[in-house]
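Record type: monomer structure entry
Structure origin: computed from sequence
Chain ID: A
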Amino acid sequence: MWLELAYGNYGLEVLVASVKLNDIHSVGKEDNPDYAALYLLKGNAVFTVDLSKVEIQDRENEISILLPEPEMELIIDQREIEKVAEYQKNYFKGSAEDGFDAYLASMSKIDEQSEEVVANYDELIKMARESARKQVEQLVGTVSVSETNVKVGFQAADQKSQKTDTASENGTNETDDQTKFD
């Protein structure tokens, strides 16, 4: 219950990255459009870790905390969409409604494709994982009163091997096994 009060729906925000993306909106045939525009989109990629999915293993002198992978939500600032370039044939066969419908479909497609593009930036994912690890270590450090060794790592994608990175008592990181982070 206290996690929900402190972190909303158990989502610990671990990284917010400003992003700039571009995409083309077109009307007409794909290889010969009647109209095309290049847009620059600005927004934020927000990475969160769902704390309700954390696995905790408590042993005699060691606690292992296995976090789920950070999830990313892309938030495009609609006020910051900028048309960089535009092309239009001398004649346009469609109506204004056709153009508006194509624009809305294009913006929807841009959101989906942009999320895929940003989610594939390995450096952002590494930064989100490291930030999640540090935040959880700090959280545990503020509530821990014993000399128990705490390991914070990530759940394996296939859930078959649960490997962790160790945070030793002196604050240095030691790797037990290779994780998806490496």
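Annotation 1: Residues 1-7, 158-182 have pLDDT under 50 and may be disordered.
Annotation 2: The longest strand covers residues 11-28.
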